């Protein structure tokens, strides 16, 4: 049972907790860090680390999808981003890399994303990634899934990510034929990841569409403004734990289908990753932390997909002071800075070792303390 | 039942929550944004958006009342403000627009408001607004209602707003004949909006005066100092929800009179507006957000009525760095800034769509999370 | 019953609330401000406002004691301060007025207070105040009460204030003969104010010594460091409410002796004063707010008595940017600044009016909201 | 019973409280400060103050171990630090003293700690300390205990400190033979202090290893990044109180073995020390507060052992603006600054006196208030 508060007469609100509100608690056992595994597998695809890239153009180009794949994570290209709007977006990415954090940046984002998507470029990008040897995963928005799916499937992807800020299993529209996720997924024979969602009910219904993975959260970080623009703020610790309960209930009602939870939001440091997994996530979706790599597509600039919305942008344009190091250094260290942004998965591994856990599934049971 | 805490032996306090403490929670359904309506109607007056202007001279001149009306909102002119103290206040408004945020600004406000009200100017202003084609709504303070009402009614207003920081249905005075709101309103045949109030009891008693609308809150924003000067601070989420309970109870006791709640306080962004409506408000009263329009009367300066009190000012004088854009852009976008201050009602509409709601009355039932 | 939390296994802590955590709540009635009285009376001494000065040399000289008395409050001179250590402390006060807020200020305070107290100067200061026509009230520390009392009483004071950071009714010492407050007070026939104290038990025992008034709190403000040095932090809302319960219980056990509670701490603005009285205090003790008067003894500098302790100072030396205005303007306005530091008791009066109360005793029952 | 919250469906978290969340509460009695004792004894070793040095090279050299011993505390040398890696580390310490707080500092720390430990230097350092007349106490990490113990014991230490960020009684490894603390300690006939730990279970199991003292906390202060890197954050008030319950239970199960609790974390001021002891600690472990002494080994620079980890540093390199004064002044005053960093144990003594307590064991029962 949730902790429900009556904020006013007859008006209940559920209490929610952010990852910042909690910390993980060591048990009475510790373990050698070399005995700890961070391996994760989605459907037939094994990964050394539970790391999925947030499909922003600021982090994922065909090259970085390949690089992340080689390093043991899952890269995802946004097929509604710059790489399918421009034959060669490198000049635009360079320009964006040079923009400052002023008001004009949003207007410029809106302009460059006003260019239409060229479906033929989708096939081209998929080929590039496949030739690079990586698992091919692309992101489409729910609105464009029906239109883009044929092209995407034709191009031959391994994992399809259908992602919007908020995705539900039941989209209602009198304006256009809405996507019926359940029917759509049933017709595919590749694993689909779908989200974001923020609570037990939506997570459960998304699981029932047949998705292999569900994204929990709306990707909120300090650049996101979903909160101020829409009034929607997701306490990630609660959202992940609630979705994990949906995963258990769905596992029970299906007699064994395990749907993976990918946490997307409030994730800056290895400590945040450890907490998200400790709340019950199977993997994390990283955006801005990967934009700090010296080989990131936009040279340290960072923006969400929603930041370029033509009428209602919901994310600020951020610029890192200087790159932190290679993608490998960000994922595996060695760190020469103590702030938790380098050696992200070495940090996770050590946290698991300090708490005595051997693998990620066990670590979902780690003790938590609520101290804020 | 409220959550009551004993802050010391024998001393109870009710727990209250601010809009910042809560967020709205998507449901398991989403909806096409084009299927969502933000229409609102007060008595015989329909509005495209649930937007009432805070009657400060910083936002409302006869011209901006007309402009807001054309855009689908309700403008309210303060007939105890500069427009009834000066034949042509434009020179003073220009001067105020040029003042900085220093201590002297308050003293200057006190001076310009020391000029007496000229009753004949009231009729003049009302005519201007009526000629502009807008619904005519003016604000009087409870103290001056008896004196100014004849002039105001004579001039022919559509909606009368009787507003003070705190207004009760039972004002006690041995010094002068107090306003009996119930008798006063019974004698009128136009809708009256009255407030602010901060709790269930006061809201219910104000509803019983026959008011068509009740203002909830004291208009507090970051420039307001009601808190430091009077020790009164209104947790808006709680105040709105409590007043909504009073609305339900009054609806029941009258067999069907629905009194509209207009939230006034803590409203800066489209997210705040969504939250206030989600707590149960029927409309929002906006002050400072409208002062950022490039056509605002005081060129971006902002002050509450209470900021010019001759002996006990209760609001700071604020100056915006630069205007955000036209009034239309503030209300309907397109936004080119992601901080929630542009496209206020486009943001509201999208929040409603993300949560699966069709109209404002339904949206009052949206789920809430308490996460701070 | 207090809200008690187990912070760890077997370790309870009482929940406490600061004045900042709460706000006062208007009732369904409002009242004309001219019908409100802020009068207060201690023993035979009536005051227009419930204002006692904190006996710091930064606020109270013989002249300002007289000035505050004329304005309707109670000034208190510290007879262990500069006025009894120096024939003419004006040169030292001027020097202190010129010191900045750097580390050296504390060392200089320690030096100037190292000068011994000259008992003959006590009589001199008392005479000055009496000649000025004010109620004569002086402060001694519990440690020096036995030594200084004969001189003080001989000089003829009206109200004696025995004040230390923490004063108990039962001081234990094997080193020197401790002050037995109960016997000491029984022998006097003038009203004694004693404190500070922080909880029900101590307040009740101090009442049983026969004191006419009990100081609640340790005078903590943003310059005080009692918290960081001693680990003692007083949530004033809780402390005042608890002491008010002790006052009720003592009233009952004595069949009618009413002991006045003087709140000392967390008081910067008229809003804070309203909240302290709303929690149950009879009067407030003001230090730094009075140091901002243009006629304050140390020209805007501010320090607590404890700030000059030779081995363990517990308060920083503060310097106001510029005086706010005359003492009269600080107490009664008119304010030309909206931040609650001017017109302190006009603000209180208006808060009482907005909440519908007529006098201070009634206002102790005002509703509270806990919103932080 | 702990206060347990369900942060999401089926996911409990224990509520924890930091020292900053609480304060100590005076009782109805006060005591003469000269009647208060801060004496502490561990095994056969008596100390004037309950002060153990955090074994960082920034605070503890052979000379400062001796100096702290003379002043009545317990100095601890890290035998895995610079003093056993370099014949004469003074040049390196000087260099570190001159580093700023930039990113490069961590890399430099990693370099200087890459030098191997020279076991013969261990004996040399122990001899230096013994000749200086101080109790000889050295720190080893759990990983190196088996390798270094023979050398350390041979050199003849009085008290052995086995300290890592998180130490458990049950370390699991398939990679190398793990340290069996219980067997290891049983074979020794000198008192062992072991830790850090963060909760009841781990504390109890560490007590059962036969340790004379258990370190509670992970040494977190504002320079520590254990939180951001590992997701582990220790609410010290709760951790200490929980460990105190383990101490009581262990005392009961053994029929009288009293294990000392040494709090390590969140300790900056005398107020913090008072609160840690009031929660149930027997002594405090001080790091950064001692690095501010003018005779500190690294001239005001401060870093944890974990700050030099070669792959995953977990602490920032800090530099004090200027030394606060001699070690004696820091411990015993006189203070000429009111911020609680000077006269640490004079402050503790006065806090005990204000609350009416005579010795440390009694003071563990002091009342607490939870006010944040």
Give Rg of chain A in angstroms: 20 Å
CATH superfamily of chain A, by name, is Aldolase class I
Question: Biggest chain pair contact, residues each?
Answer: A-B, 56 and 61 residues
Sheet with most strands of chain A: 8 strands, parallel
Q: Helical segment tally of chain A?
A: 14
Q: What integer is the average pLDDT of chain A?
A: 95
| CATH class category of chain A | Alpha Beta
Spatially, the strands of the biggest sheet of chain A line up as: 7-15-14-13-12-10-9-8
Quick recap:
Chain A has 372 residues and is of the alpha/beta class. Chain A has helices at residues 62-70, 90-98, 104-112, 119-131, 142-155, 181-186, 200-207, 226-230, 236-254, 270-278, 288-291, 327-332, 344-354, 360-363, and strands spanning 4-8, 11-15, 22-25, 29-31, 40-42, 45-47, 51-53, 77-78, 137-140, 159-163, 170-172, 192-197, 213-220, 260-265, 283-286, 301-302, 318-319, 367-370.
Describe the structure.
The structure is a homotetramer of 372-residue chains. With 372 residues, the first copy, chain A, is α/β, with parallel strands linked by helices. The first copy, chain A, has one domain (18-370): TIM Barrel (Alpha-Beta Barrel). Helices cover 34% and strands 19% of the residues of chain A. The first copy, chain A, is built from 14 helices and 18 strands. Chain A has helices spanning 62-70, 90-98, 104-112, 119-131, 142-155, 181-186, 200-207, 226-230, 236-254, 270-278, 288-291, 327-332, 344-354, 360-363; strands at residues 4-8, 11-15, 22-25, 29-31, 40-42, 45-47, 51-53, 77-78, 137-140, 159-163, 170-172, 192-197, 213-220, 260-265, 283-286, 301-302, 318-319, 367-370. The first copy, chain A, has an eight-stranded parallel sheet. Chain A has a two-stranded antiparallel ribbon with strand order 1-2. A two-stranded antiparallel ribbon of chain A has the order 3-18. In chain A, α1 packs parallel to α4. The radius of gyration of chain A is 20 Å and the shape is globular. Chains in contact: A-B, A-D, B-C, C-D. At the A-B interface, β1, β2, α3, β11 and α7 of A face β3, β4, α9, α10 and α13 of B. β4 (29-31) of chain A pairs parallel with β11 (170-172) of chain D, so a sheet runs across the interface.
